[in-house]
Protein backbone atom coordinates (compact mmCIF):
# COMPACT_ATOMS: atom_id res chain seq x y z
CA UNK A 1 0.00 0.00 0.00
CA UNK A 2 1.10 3.54 -0.76
CA UNK A 3 -0.41 5.37 2.21
CA UNK A 4 2.94 6.00 3.91
CA UNK A 5 4.38 7.70 0.81
CA UNK A 6 1.17 9.71 0.28
CA UNK A 7 1.18 10.83 3.92
CA UNK A 8 4.86 11.77 3.63
CA UNK A 9 4.13 13.94 0.59
CA UNK A 10 1.12 15.57 2.26
CA UNK A 11 3.26 16.40 5.30
CA UNK A 12 5.90 17.93 3.02
CA UNK A 13 3.20 20.11 1.45
CA UNK A 14 1.48 21.17 4.66
CA UNK A 15 4.84 21.95 6.29
CA UNK A 16 5.41 24.50 3.49
CA UNK A 17 2.12 26.39 3.90
CA UNK A 18 2.94 29.92 5.04
CA UNK A 19 2.26 30.58 8.71
CA UNK A 20 1.73 34.25 7.88
CA UNK A 21 -0.85 33.42 5.20
CA UNK A 22 -2.57 31.05 7.63
CA UNK A 23 -2.88 33.68 10.36
CA UNK A 24 -4.11 36.31 7.91
CA UNK A 25 -6.61 33.84 6.41
CA UNK A 26 -8.09 33.08 9.83
CA UNK A 27 -8.34 36.80 10.62
CA UNK A 28 -10.07 37.38 7.29
CA UNK A 29 -12.66 34.68 8.07
CA UNK A 30 -13.25 36.13 11.56
CA UNK A 31 -13.71 39.71 10.37
CA UNK A 32 -15.83 39.15 7.25
CA UNK A 33 -19.56 39.78 7.61
CA UNK A 34 -20.31 36.75 5.42
CA UNK A 35 -18.19 34.07 3.78
CA UNK A 36 -18.99 32.53 0.40
CA UNK A 37 -17.20 29.42 -0.87
CA UNK A 38 -16.72 28.18 -4.41
CA UNK A 39 -14.80 25.35 -6.00
CA UNK A 40 -15.38 22.75 -8.69
CA UNK A 41 -15.16 18.98 -8.48
CA UNK A 42 -13.24 17.65 -5.50
CA UNK A 43 -11.94 21.14 -4.67
CA UNK A 44 -15.58 22.15 -4.43
CA UNK A 45 -16.26 19.28 -2.04
CA UNK A 46 -13.34 20.39 0.14
CA UNK A 47 -14.69 23.98 0.08
CA UNK A 48 -18.14 22.72 1.10
CA UNK A 49 -16.64 20.66 3.94
CA UNK A 50 -14.96 23.83 5.22
CA UNK A 51 -18.22 25.77 4.84
CA UNK A 52 -19.96 23.16 6.99
CA UNK A 53 -17.39 23.57 9.75
CA UNK A 54 -17.71 27.37 9.58
CA UNK A 55 -21.48 26.98 10.07
CA UNK A 56 -20.73 24.83 13.13
CA UNK A 57 -18.60 27.70 14.43
CA UNK A 58 -21.50 30.12 14.03
CA UNK A 59 -20.03 31.95 11.04
CA UNK A 60 -22.40 33.09 8.28
CA UNK A 61 -21.38 31.09 5.24
CA UNK A 62 -22.91 30.30 1.86
CA UNK A 63 -22.01 27.99 -1.02
CA UNK A 64 -21.96 29.64 -4.45
CA UNK A 65 -24.43 28.03 -6.81
CA UNK A 66 -26.90 26.82 -4.18
CA UNK A 67 -30.47 28.08 -4.64
CA UNK A 68 -30.59 29.55 -1.12
CA UNK A 69 -27.38 31.59 -1.48
CA UNK A 70 -28.05 35.34 -1.21
CA UNK A 71 -26.26 38.06 -3.13
CA UNK A 72 -22.72 38.84 -2.08
CA UNK A 73 -22.42 42.35 -0.65
CA UNK A 74 -19.59 44.81 -0.27
CA UNK A 75 -17.18 43.60 2.42
CA UNK A 76 -18.18 39.93 2.13
CA UNK A 77 -15.49 37.45 1.19
CA UNK A 78 -15.44 34.82 -1.52
CA UNK A 79 -13.22 31.87 -0.65
CA UNK A 80 -12.26 30.48 -4.08
CA UNK A 81 -10.59 27.05 -4.13
CA UNK A 82 -8.79 25.82 -7.26
CA UNK A 83 -5.55 23.85 -7.45
CA UNK A 84 -4.68 25.19 -10.87
CA UNK A 85 -6.20 28.61 -10.27
CA UNK A 86 -7.63 28.35 -13.77
CA UNK A 87 -10.95 26.57 -13.21
CA UNK A 88 -13.42 28.65 -15.24
CA UNK A 89 -16.37 28.61 -12.83
CA UNK A 90 -14.12 29.58 -9.91
CA UNK A 91 -12.37 32.39 -11.82
CA UNK A 92 -15.73 33.74 -13.04
CA UNK A 93 -17.14 33.67 -9.50
CA UNK A 94 -14.09 35.63 -8.34
CA UNK A 95 -14.68 38.23 -11.07
CA UNK A 96 -18.34 38.53 -10.01
CA UNK A 97 -17.35 38.92 -6.35
CA UNK A 98 -14.91 41.69 -7.24
CA UNK A 99 -17.62 43.43 -9.34
CA UNK A 100 -19.91 43.29 -6.27
CA UNK A 101 -17.12 44.92 -4.22
CA UNK A 102 -16.44 41.80 -2.23
CA UNK A 103 -13.03 40.46 -1.32
CA UNK A 104 -11.56 37.33 -2.89
CA UNK A 105 -9.41 34.88 -0.96
CA UNK A 106 -7.84 32.33 -3.28
CA UNK A 107 -6.64 28.94 -2.11
CA UNK A 108 -4.52 27.57 -4.93
CA UNK A 109 -1.20 26.02 -5.77
CA UNK A 110 -0.30 28.63 -8.41
CA UNK A 111 0.54 32.17 -7.31
CA UNK A 112 0.68 33.26 -10.97
CA UNK A 113 -2.73 31.88 -11.97
CA UNK A 114 -5.67 33.99 -13.16
CA UNK A 115 -7.44 33.32 -9.84
CA UNK A 116 -4.43 34.42 -7.80
CA UNK A 117 -4.12 37.59 -9.86
CA UNK A 118 -7.76 38.48 -9.09
CA UNK A 119 -7.46 37.73 -5.39
CA UNK A 120 -7.09 40.21 -2.57
CA UNK A 121 -5.57 37.47 -0.47
CA UNK A 122 -3.89 34.17 -1.38
CA UNK A 123 -3.05 30.98 0.48
CA UNK A 124 -0.64 28.84 -1.50
CA UNK A 125 -0.95 25.10 -1.03
CA UNK A 126 2.42 24.10 -2.57
CA UNK A 127 1.28 20.84 -4.13
CA UNK A 128 2.05 21.40 -7.78
CA UNK A 129 3.33 18.31 -9.54
CA UNK A 130 5.51 18.75 -12.57
CA UNK A 131 6.76 15.39 -13.73
CA UNK A 132 9.93 15.75 -15.78
CA UNK A 133 8.11 14.85 -18.98
CA UNK A 134 5.28 17.38 -18.39
CA UNK A 135 6.14 21.03 -17.84
CA UNK A 136 2.52 22.19 -17.57
CA UNK A 137 0.66 21.69 -14.30
CA UNK A 138 -2.60 20.68 -15.98
CA UNK A 139 -0.98 17.98 -18.11
CA UNK A 140 0.81 16.49 -15.11
CA UNK A 141 -2.30 16.63 -12.97
CA UNK A 142 -4.57 15.13 -15.62
CA UNK A 143 -2.16 12.32 -16.31
CA UNK A 144 -1.60 11.90 -12.60
CA UNK A 145 1.52 11.32 -10.63
CA UNK A 146 2.68 7.79 -10.03
CA UNK A 147 1.02 7.99 -6.62
CA UNK A 148 -1.85 10.48 -6.53
CA UNK A 149 -3.90 11.34 -9.61
CA UNK A 150 -5.85 14.42 -10.64
CA UNK A 151 -5.05 16.92 -7.91
CA UNK A 152 -5.34 14.63 -4.90
CA UNK A 153 -2.36 16.15 -3.10
CA UNK A 154 -3.86 19.65 -3.42
CA UNK A 155 -7.30 18.58 -2.25
CA UNK A 156 -6.19 16.50 0.72
CA UNK A 157 -3.63 19.11 1.79
CA UNK A 158 -6.25 21.85 1.48
CA UNK A 159 -8.70 19.85 3.60
CA UNK A 160 -6.02 19.45 6.28
CA UNK A 161 -5.23 23.18 6.09
CA UNK A 162 -8.93 24.03 6.45
CA UNK A 163 -9.34 21.66 9.42
CA UNK A 164 -6.35 23.30 11.13
CA UNK A 165 -8.04 26.67 10.56
CA UNK A 166 -11.20 25.29 12.20
CA UNK A 167 -9.17 24.18 15.23
CA UNK A 168 -7.58 27.62 15.51
CA UNK A 169 -10.93 29.38 15.03
CA UNK A 170 -12.40 27.20 17.78
CA UNK A 171 -9.60 28.33 20.09
CA UNK A 172 -9.80 32.02 19.17
CA UNK A 173 -13.60 32.19 19.25
CA UNK A 174 -13.88 30.08 22.39
CA UNK A 175 -16.17 27.56 20.70
CA UNK A 176 -16.20 24.05 22.16
CA UNK A 177 -17.02 20.88 20.25
CA UNK A 178 -20.18 20.46 22.33
CA UNK A 179 -21.45 23.81 21.01
CA UNK A 180 -20.64 22.79 17.44
CA UNK A 181 -22.59 19.54 17.88
CA UNK A 182 -25.71 21.58 18.69
CA UNK A 183 -25.52 23.16 15.24
CA UNK A 184 -24.57 19.95 13.40
CA UNK A 185 -27.16 18.57 10.97
CA UNK A 186 -29.79 16.41 12.64
CA UNK A 187 -32.12 15.66 9.73
UniProtKB/TrEMBL annotation:
MF (Gene Ontology): carbohydrate derivative binding; isomerase activity
InterPro entries from the UniProt entry: PHI/rmpB (IPR017552), SIS_dom (IPR001347), SIS_dom_sf (IPR046348)
A Pfam short name: SIS
Record keyword Ribonucleoprotein present: no
GO biological process, one term: carbohydrate derivative metabolic process
Record's keyword terms, sorted: Isomerase
Residue ranges occupied by any SIS domain in the UniProt entry: 25-175
Family: Belongs to the SIS family. PHI subfamily.
The name this protein goes by in its record: 6-phospho-3-hexuloisomerase
Originating organism: Desulfofervidus auxilii
